[in-house]
Design a protein that fits this description.
- The chain is of the alpha/beta class.
- It folds into 2 domains: about 210 residues, Periplasmic binding protein-like II (D-Maltodextrin-Binding Protein, domain 2); about 200 residues, D-Maltodextrin-Binding Protein, domain 2.
- It has 18 helices and 16 strands.
- The radius of gyration is 22 Å and the shape is globular.
Length: about 425
């Protein structure tokens, strides 16, 4: 579920091979320039173990029946995927095409000159917001291959109906709801506060910074300017989080609450909590635990606007999607032709039937066959209408920076750090 950039001059060797793929070693430097193999040939595809692998295998089979060269799909277990990929990318046996999470997970490979730059003609087939995490230093190095996972508010419809209130559209609405539900003995927002679940708290920080300052602030941070944590919007965000904690928005014992069934999801289902800020996968968790509640009792709405904020209320945060990237060892013609399968009607329809919400431009017309068409279209429109889709910060920053950031966020939520100490603590991560 959760998986956890610096300018420099480039001297790259470019070889144009097709309209769909430009074989440029993205991120290469003067000391090493990546080049591609011959245009034709067989290609290896590495995919993470996932329920949608049958869709990918069908695409491979269809491609192999007609395409230039052959593609062989290798499924790698989730637990060892990142380590195995890292080892292979440092050897002569790196995969030709591989699954990844975009953002920070690609930076090192780009810098090492291991990836090719994909042609801009691919962009018209995907929602613009979903391409951002597949782009490094302005170069497209990953195309979407799975569904999108935006973060938004889920709520218990019955709890809201009984209280005679509506889901929040503004931050003022949200803080007023805290008072309403507290008075009724209901936790306004359930959040997982255990040591391994601080990524659920990160979602609040991400959205508030976006609403207050817009997406460019975190873009600067992710690009290497760590001084941007001094921006007033960071301190203001920490103050707003502290106010929520202090007023009981998350209850009094969230530090012992875990994520998922038995934890946050159960509290929402049973009406012990009114809302939860979570990724779109929450629907699947609820469906697995209580299908009736998921179908008729679970509501969802976009994160509210913040008065006076510079961010666009239509912006979203979360996991834009998963990506396929091409290495410099790939046979160019084969790789270019195979990438076209990621936006074919048959591939997109296969993902939809698995419960995914693809980010292709043709997906909207196919969502009628989703397990819950209304929910699928809500997610799709959320991403389609988003001026910016900020990737989850821990993913965008990578483990080295993302892990200590989560620690500082948990300290803020637990009251172990003041807002000012939170800012200082995060600034110190890179010193």
């Amino acid at each position: 579920m959760k998986n956890i950039t610096a300018s420099r001059k480039r001297a790259c060797v470019t070889l144009a091979v097709s309209a769909a793929l430009v074989v440029t070693a993205a991120g290469c430097g003067s000391s090493s320039s990546g080049t591609a193999k011959s245009a034709g040939g067989n290609a290896s595809l590495w995919m993470l173990q996932d329920p949608t692998n049958s869709v990918s295998q069908s695409a491979v089979d269809a491609y192999n029946a007609t395409g230039p060269g052959k593609v062989t799909m290798n499924v790698i277990a989730t637990a060892g995927y990142k380590d195995k990929l890292r080892t292979a990318m440092g050897s002569s046996s790196m995969p030709n095409i591989f699954f990844n999470w975009g953002g920070g997970s690609l930076n090192d490979y780009v810098k090492a000159g291991k990836l090719v730059t994909l042609d801009d003609s691919l962009k018209s087939h995907f929602l613009p917001a979903a391409l951002q995490a597949g782009t490094v230093d302005g170069k497209l190095v990953g195309v979407p291959s799975r569904g999108t996972q935006p973060v938004f508010l889920f709520y218990n419809k019955k709890v809201f109906t009984d209280a005679g209130v509506q889901p929040p559209k503004t931050w003022v609405d949200l803080t007023n709801l805290v008072k309403v539900f507290k008075a009724k003995g209901i936790t306004p927002f359930t959040v997982a506060g255990t040591a391994t679940d601080s990524w659920t708290e990160l979602m609040w920080i991400e959205y508030l910074v976006d609403r207050l300052a817009g997406p460019d602030l975190f873009k600067k941070i992710a690009a290497g300017d760590w001084t941007q944590w001094n921006d007033p919007a960071i301190l203001k965000t920490a103050q707003m989080v502290k106010e929520l904690v202090d007023t009981g928005a998350f209850g009094s014992s969230f530090g012992s609450v875990s994520y998922g069934a038995g934890g946050t999801s159960t509290l929402l289902d049973k009406g012990k909590a009114a809302m939860v800020l979570m990724g779109s996968w929450e629907y699947a968790v609820q469906q697995g635990a209580d299908p009736t509640f998921a179908k008729s009792g679970l509501g969802y709405v976009a994160f509210p606007s913040v008065d006076g904020g510079q961010g666009n209320p239509s912006d979203v945060v979360g996991n834009p999607t998963n990506y396929l990237s091409v290495t410099t060892s790939a046979p160019a013609e084969t790789a270019a032709a195979f990438l076209k399968t990621t936006y074919s009607d048959s591939y997109v329809q296969g993902l939809v039937e698995k419960g995914e919400v693809p980010v292709t431009s043709n997906a909207a017309s196919l969502l009628g066959k989703a397990p819950d068409p209304s929910y699928a279209l809500f997610q799709y429109d959320l991403v389609r209408n988003a001026p910016a889709f900020t990737q989850s910060w821990d993913q965008a920053l990578g483990l080295t920076l993302g892990t200590p950031l989560l620690t500082e966020i948990q300290k803020l939520f637990n009251g172990q750090s003041s807002p000012a100490q939170f800012v200082s603590g995060v600034l110190a991560i890179k010193h």
